[in-house]
Amino acid sequence: MAKGKTKNFFVWIIMGLLFVGLLGFGAGGLTGTVRSVGTVGEKPLSTQAYFEELQTLIRIRSAQEGRQLSFPEADALGIPIRALQSAVGQRALDNEAAVLGLSVGDGVVSEQVLATPAFRGLDGSFDRETYRQALSSSGLSVRDYETSLREGAARALVQGAVFTGIPDPATYGETVAKFTREGRTFTWAPLTAADVEIILPEPSEEDLQTHYDANPAIYTSLETRALQYVWLTPDMIQDDMPVDEVALREEYEARIEEYVQAERRLIERLVFSDEAAAQAAIEAIETGETSFPELVEDRGLTLEDVDGGDVTEAQMGDAGPAIFALETGGVTGPFQSDLGPALYRVNAVLAARNTTFEQAAPELREDQAAQRAIRLIEDQIDPITNLLAGGALLENVAEQTDMVLGEMDWTADITDGIAAYAAFRDVVANQDVADFPELQSLDDGGLFAVQILEVRAPALIPMDDVRDDVIAGWEAQETAAAVMAEAEAKQARLNEGVQDFGFIGLDAVQENGLTRRGFVNGAPTNFLTEVFDMDIGDVRVLPNDGDAIIVRLDDITGADPEDDVFATEMDAIAQSAAEGIAQDIYELYTRTVQLRTEVNINDAAINAVHANFR
What we know:
With about 625 residues, the protein is α+β, with helices and mostly antiparallel strands. It has helices at about 1-25, 45-65, 70-75, 80-100, 105-115, 130-135, 140-165, 170-180, 205-215, 235, 245-255, 255-260, 275-285, 290-300, 320-325, 355-380, 380-390, 395-400, 420-430, 465-495, 525-530, 565-595, 605-610, and strands at about 35-40, 45, 185-190, 225-230, 260, 265-270, 305-310, 330-335, 340-350, 355, 405-410, 440, 445-455, 510-515, 540-545, 545-555, 600.
């Protein structure tokens, strides 16, 4: 029963989304008189449908990128092609529904029209004139809109017929649930360099050379970009900005509520139906029979529901003096409120704040100087852009403007100075030697431009230049080897019959019934995979970032089919698999429909739609 309801619900979601999507309000920006970009079977593919699909995909990708994507960028990513494929796919299903003779009656269309809020008048009921005007503003006629609703409903019937009728693969769900719910009980202990007595000899040249040759990736430099740049930020010039004292005082007065605040209280308010009930409640609190939180809970409320925020004494009227006489946690009342008699509890005491102009002046002066600096930088955008467009070198730009010249050998691990800005790192990582420097913005209102002088590919650093690092690497390698050797010796003792980890100097932990989804803090990511590959009684040694872990499998626990959690997981897995199968079948069906449906696309009409995005 639950399965059928789930799938019916899914189908109705599809239909609901289709009806909503057909409204198309707010898809403005499409101009021109071409109404179709082609045909799919016997159905025209409307210009508006393709435009809206393309607009949606560009909007989604822009949100993913965190910036507005230009049409050339979208075109390079193949978004127009995907939009056309999607629009054609939808229209192919409309044509298939017509071929199958599927349709819906006027009642279904009428129900959807009457239920649409955008078509209601001032009295909240359907208004035909509002209906016509709303459609007209979206470039639709009543006939076109109702036809699209009818086609959308028929398409939903086709989709629903494909999606429904797929039985849940119960055997698959049971098998996977048994796998995921299976447990392991095991004992494990970490072994670190601190637990092992290690005395390393002085490494010979041969030792170092062998280690260096065996680990070239460690001693290979990152890609290095030699570059020159100019930059200017508000911090660089704001100390030189003139400050208007009159403006400072005006700003102080405008922000007076920030600097001068009366004493406040954070309160909670519980309202009662009448004075007698409120009085009985405060008396019960005073005698210890109940508490304010208990009264709130008894009313079916939470403390968040009765939160009154922070208030001043004046705001609380007659209740103000009593509330402000309380300590934190105190309750007073009843006092009349706009909702009836109420009790009040104080959550916190917020002291008064009185910051004078003289005390606030440094902050105000810094804010004003920063704003002036930002405006001054904005005024330089056009002159600097013109200099760069005219072929000026960065040295010339620095000489003729306030921008500061700098040079660096940049790698991906440099994040100080100007490289602390993500915008700078992005430009440097993607700009080539042949590219001309362009003015770019920083997130604090600053500007910069970069010229890549040389790109040096990653290269193996001569050993003499990293000798100290090679020595440290060799020592780490030998220390890890010594730890593993000691761990293997202890593993041998356990294999010989020693049961107690503590007997061989290990501080062990036992994990009981851990499933594959479990987590063991301090263990490597593949730890449980290794444990689940073991047989009962097996002892293994695993490396752990220079240290080692010794683990023994003590027991294997099978999944319990009688467990409610097992049954729930089995059903969820089977249902998810059925939905996945249905989705695959639907995609195959859709492709088959498209392959047997004749599609004709008007390239000129497509280009006309694209022109609206440029």
